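Backbone-to-sequence.
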């Protein structure tokens, strides 16, 4: 089986960067990324590479190299499906907001629509690759829809979950720890494997059965999220006992069995994956009546919610138990540094909590746009849009955001926050000048020497 043309349905945070790298490394394969969202496709096609819809370090260079050569972005979904030998499905699978499984199960509406569209449009046999994170056994649904086209076509379904992390997507795609391919048909597996072998050593490409591959993606994210909740739970114990969470993380991380990565205490994990995938895992476990298993993983989410609430409460309590009318500057809104993605960002929930207490919030984030911040708050439905814009202002200058503030909260670990002129910031603030560091980013000694009252998670 030889793959000459690839289509990818979904030009989001996963589909866009992943297909850009596949095209970069396989110049002989034509890769077309399609999306229903016209603005998004226009942005992917923008001549100014700074306007790509996804901000990722190094992405502009990859797109610049491949776009127009063998990488194309289009809204013509039917044409791309019809032309392709292999189709990646990389659409969103949000948590259901209605009906059975509301608030927990993954909404597979978009996946099913893709399968139906492929079934309608295809006139030749194709390999379908699940890139989106989906519940275990979704491939059976896709296969069932494709097997009933009545056109006598052969569709092979493979699972190939993406493990890139935002902010380091290009680095992760260029040097993956592993590529996982699940499937039954050996020639389809071989064809997909050969695409990755253009740059990934063969021994890093793992093949499994379909269900192991689908489940492994959920489990990988659950384990990563669990580590963050584990260290975050310890951060509270550190604050109560006088231990320092960074020292504890360092001490336990030296044990090679535990390992040092992903032990950074924070205001709580965010991102489009961790919470959604945990909820999904909990839902699947419950649907098999595995209630103890479900409760175990549910606790990882509970600790994460607790950490966000605890941080907001700490701000209120430190500022003499009221923030009503007080100005609090938020440095950072993205769910982590080096991305403009705000999905499930801790900043949204901390802001919501403080706005309920009638705080005045100024937000500065180097990459997140104003309309996104208001959209995030609107989606919570806690108060009207006009109240949100009365209480919260988005600034394009960090010094202006901190001007006359009673306190500053660090919500995202952007490197540039460390380089600010903190003396200038302090001189222009109300006193006592509080800093609440939700990322343990700044230098305590430096800030205390300048006269700040400094609080960091887990100290
Ligand atoms: C995650 C997985 O890492 C990736 O493999 C998968 O494909 C998608 O989900 P992502 O959500 O993009 O990637 O970022 P990640 O680096 O995992 O961070 C998730 C959240 O955890 C962020 O809010 C981050 O700030 C937080 N985090 C991470 C911590 O608070 N402490 C840590 O030690 C690590
Ligand atoms: P992810 O982080 O998984 O990449 P995103 O939400 O960033 O998720 O991207 C998913 C993209 O998939 C969106 O841009 C959305 O418009 C697109 N999409 C969803 N359903 C379809 C469909 N049936 N056809 C084409 N594009 C779709």
């Amino acid at each position: 089986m030889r793959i000459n043309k690839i289509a990818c349905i979904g030009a989001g945070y996963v589909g866009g960067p992943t297909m850009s790298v596949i095209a970069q490394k396989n110049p002989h394969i034509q890769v077309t990324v399609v999306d229903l969202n016209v603005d998004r496709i226009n942005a992917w096609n923008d001549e100014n590479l700074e306007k790509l819809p996804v901000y990722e370090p190094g992405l502009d260079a990859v797109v610049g190299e491949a776009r127009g050569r063998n990488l194309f972005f289009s809204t013509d979904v039917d044409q791309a499906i019809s032309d392709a030998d292999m189709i990646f499905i990389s659409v969103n699978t949000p948590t259901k907001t209605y009906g059975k499984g509301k608030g927990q199960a993954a909404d597979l509406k978009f996946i099913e629509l893709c399968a139906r569209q492929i079934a309608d449009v295809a006139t030749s046999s194709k390999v379908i690759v699940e890139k989106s994170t989906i519940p275990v056994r979704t491939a059976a649904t896709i296969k069932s829809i494709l097997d009933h086209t009545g056109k006598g076509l052969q569709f092979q379904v493979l699972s190939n979950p993406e493990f890139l992390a935002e902010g380091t997507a290009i680095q992760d795609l260029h040097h993956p720890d592993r590529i996982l391919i699940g499937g039954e048909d050996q020639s389809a597996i071989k064809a997909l494997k050969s695409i990755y072998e253009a740059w990934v050593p063969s021994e890093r490409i793992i093949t499994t059965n379909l269900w192991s591959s689908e489940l492994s993606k959920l489990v990988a994210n659950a384990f990563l999220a669990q580590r963050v909740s584990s260290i975050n739970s310890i951060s509270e114990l550190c604050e109560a006992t006088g231990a320092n969470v960074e020292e504890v993380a360092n001490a336990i991380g030296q044990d090679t069995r535990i390992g040092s990565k992903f032990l950074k205490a924070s205001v709580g994990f965010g991102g489009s994956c961790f919470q959604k995938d945990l909820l999904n895992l909990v839902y699947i476990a419950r649907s098999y009546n595995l209630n103890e298993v479900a409760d175990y993983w549910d606790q990882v989410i509970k600790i994460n919610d607790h950490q966000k609430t605890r941080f907001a409460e700490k701000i209120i309590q430190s500022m003499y138990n009221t923030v009503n009318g007080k100005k609090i500057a938020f440095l950072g809104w993205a769910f982590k540094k080096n991305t403009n993605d705000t999905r499930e960002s801790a900043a949204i929930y901390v802001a919501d909590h403080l706005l309920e207490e009638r705080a005045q919030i100024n937000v500065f984030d180097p990459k997140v746009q104003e309309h996104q911040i208001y959209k995030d708050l609107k989606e919570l439905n806690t108060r009207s849009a006009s109240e949100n814009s009365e209480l919260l202002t988005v600034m394009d200058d960090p010094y202006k955001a901190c001007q006359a503030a009673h306190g500053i909260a660090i919500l995202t670990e952007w490197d540039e926050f460390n380089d600010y002129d903190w003396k200038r910031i302090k001189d222009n603030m109300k006193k006592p000048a509080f800093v609440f560091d939700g990322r343990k980013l700044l230098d305590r000694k430096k800030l205390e020497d300048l006269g700040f009252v400094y609080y960091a998670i887990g100290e």
